[in-house]
Every structure is written in C-alpha cells, then in structure tokens.
Amino acid sequence: MNASRFSSALREHARETIESLGSVDIVVGVPCYQSAAFLTHVLKTIAKGIEMHYPDSKSLIMVSDGGSTDDTREIARRTEINSFNIEKLVTIYRGLPGKGSGLRAVFEAANFLKAKAIAVFDSDLKSINPSWIKSMLQPVFQGYDFVTPHYRRYKLDGTITNTIAYNLTRALFGLKIRQPIGGDFGISPSLAKHYLDQDVWETDVAKFGIDIYMTTTAIINGYKICQSRLGPKIHGHKDPAGDLGPMFRQVVGTIFTLMDTYESFWKEVKESHEVPILGEVVLEEPPSFEIDRESLVEYFRLGFGNFESIWRNILEERDLEVYKTLVKSNGNDDFRLPIESWVRTVYRYAAAYQVTPRQRMKIFDTMIPLYYARVASMINELQEKNQKECEKHFDEDAIVFEKMKGYLLNIWKKGA
Fold first, then answer.
1. In what order do the strands lie in the sheet with 277-278?
2. Which cofactor does it need (predicted)?
C-alpha cells in the first residue's frame, strides 16, 4: 500500500467544516463502525455531559466512521444536539479500516482546532452517562496528558485485558494501568500531536492496536498519566469463543511489536508502580453474562490437532505436556491451565515473534487456541468468586508475570 495515500485521515468536506470552526476548547471523538444500535444514546449523553460540566466551552463532537453499511451515519446526522456551543461533525475517515484510523482523524481535527482537551469514547457504550465526560476531560484540564478508564467490569468481560494486556503493561512497562485497552480516554493536545507525528498509521495500530499503542507510548515518553473511575462498563458484548480472534491478533501483535521497539526501556524496568485513580468509587455492579466455554475448549482441541508440531517448537516441554493433559480432560470444571504455564506461553510467543518476522501472522494463528484455553480455565477459576475476589485473582496473575520477567529476559531474541 502506498503510505502517502493516507497522509491525512480527514476527507475534504471534513477539513472544510473544521476550518470553518476556527478553534474549539473541547473535542470529543466517537470512532464507529456499524454502530446504529447505540450511537444516538452515546451522542446525546456526550452532549449532555458537555452542557452540564462545560457549558461555556466551545466544543466539537466528531463521529469518525469506518464506512458503515448500516444506518450509523444517517442516525448520527439525525441525532439533534441542541446547544449553541456544541458542533457536530459526521465523516468517513480515510486510511486502513479500524479504530486507529478513526482516532487519527479526531486527533487531526483537535490539532487543527487547537483544542485544550480531547476525549474519545467507544460507540457501543450502553453505560455511558454525563459524568463520564467530566471524568475523562477534567484531569486533562488539570494537567494530565493521558487519562485511562477505571471501570467496574463483569469478571468475564475484557478477557484480552485480563489474560495479557494488563499483565504485560504492568510487567514490561512498570505501571499498574488496569484498563490499558479500555477504549475510552482523555488526551492532552501535546500527546495527540505526538501520536499524529508517529509513523504507525499503516500498521495494526490503525486497526485495533490503537488503545495499547496510545497507553504504551504515553508511558515510554514520560507523559503524565492517571486513571479515572467510570463505574460499570456495559457495551456490545463480544464472546471470546466467537469473534475476538482478529482483535487478539491486532492487540497482542501491537504489544509484541512495541516490545521490540522499546526493548531498551522495558529491560530496565524492575517493578511496577501505582497510577493515580481519580474520582469517587462507584458501587454499582455490572450485569453478568455467559461465555460459551465448551466452544472455547473445542477450538483449543482443534488447535492442538492442527498446531501440535508448531507448539512443540515454541513451548517448553513441560507446558506442552500441560496442554496435552487439558486436551484429554472433559473440558468442564476440571479444565485448569496453571498461570505459570500461561506466562511462559506468552513470553515464549513474544520471543518467537521477534525472530520470525515473515511468519508473524501464522504464529498468531497458532497462539489463539492457547488463549482460548486460558479463557476457559479462567471461567472455571472465577466461577465461585465475587467481584472483589476476582480483582484479587487478576492482581495475583499480574504479579506472576512480573516475577517471571527474568524468564523472558533469558529467552528474548534467542529463537524460543
């Protein structure tokens, strides 16, 4: 693909609209695709939040769409924002299809308009309320560059976060950011400009790698980071057994790429540190849902049949034996993958990713069944635990990732 083709994510009509505005105080971006079911609620809530908390600020709500074929854009255009100080822009972004390209367009608009604070929200949020807008923007006005969400999530929600993203962010880069791929963020103008200046917009960052990229980049470059309590996150649920494969490749692929890019940084990180959590504690519990554990286990078993020879080349023998035992189990409550085996699996795949640049996507295809095994095991591990006990469980898993970091250092770039 010709990189110069997408030197900007803004289409001409969007650029003209932005130029006519001159400048604004606040930009709130909503990247979306096929979001007709939830978008009206999200947009009206954002507008209400701005009116409640920043009534004197000139603001832009920007819907950055990926070429939806449903009624997303029509609904966005029809959604009335009855406020003198709030403008709305609905546009199809230019670039690779994905959330990252959508956010690039938002950052370009904010940079041109000299916005003082930027927030971005997912387009499928059911639980967003007006207080979220202040929770994301106010820390930016107070001097923070990057505001990550601190949700109360159901124990089976956010499986990529809880099995890999949180653990690696903490073990590698040294900050206990609970939702590094949370989806909703507050961003300072200087950090948005930094993102725009990076040559990443023709990579998986432009797809679903954007959240972990933004978090890691903010850490590496010393930007001021905090977390903001938002309460429960209720959104269009994705079942790991059904439709998280592409997202897994892009998120974890971006993490592994960042490990290569920032190797000199994370090799020096010895321990993790707390990150400020702002806002009042919200006690409301998120609703529960089920994950199809049987499908996860079945996918893992199929993966074993297809990829055993490859796993033998990547994994340690003791961990391959663990997976062999799981294949033979009945797949019900006795299906348990020890955390130490999972940590070694993640670290060995990270190392293998670095030494096989031409085979990276094929390597990811062989890792997904192992991720499904970990999720199936996690369902069993958390079955009898309440929310507080689950958070303790996730914290203990993350500690194991930290304690075993020496293992990663020993195998890094040595052809694991």
1. 86-92, 59-65, 26-32, 117-120, 185-187, 146-152, 225-232, 277-278
2. Mg(2+)
CA dihedral 411, 259, 220, 407 (to 10 degrees): -20
Is the pLDDT reported for residue 284 higher than 50?
Answer: yes
The secondary structure of the chain, three-state, reads: CCHHHHCCCCCHHHHHHHHHHCCCCEEEEEEECCCCCCHHHHHHHHHHHHHHHCCCCCEEEEEEECCCCCCHHHHHHHCCCCCCCEEEEEEECCCCCCHHHHHHHHHHHHHHHCCCEEEECCCCECCCCHHHHHHHHHHHHCCCCEEEEEEECCCCCCHHHHHHHHHHHHHHHCECCCCCCCCCEEECHHHHHHHHHCCCCCCHHHCCCHHHHHHHHHHHCCCCEEEEEEEECCECCCCHHHHCHHHHHHHHHHHHHHHHHCHHHHCCCCCCECCCEECCCCCCCCCCCCCCHHHHHHHHHHHHHHHHHHHHHHCCHHHHHHHHHHHHCCCCCCCCCCHHHHHHHHHHHHHHHHHCHHHHHHHHHHHHHHHHHHHHHHHHHHCCCCHHHHHHHHHHHHHHHHHCHHHHHHHCCCCC
pLDDT score of 263 more than 90:
yes
Contacts of 348 (CB under 8 A, 6+ apart): 314, 315, 316, 411, 416
The pTM (predicted TM-score) of the whole model is 0.93
Query: What are the residue boundaries of the structural domains of the chain, listed by start?
Result: 3-278, 293-411
Query: Does residue 4 carry a pLDDT above 50?
Result: no
CATH superfamily, domain 3-278, is: Spore Coat Polysaccharide Biosynthesis Protein SpsA; Chain A (3.90.550.10)
pLDDT tens sequence across 49-80: 999 999 999 999 999 999 999 999 999 999 99
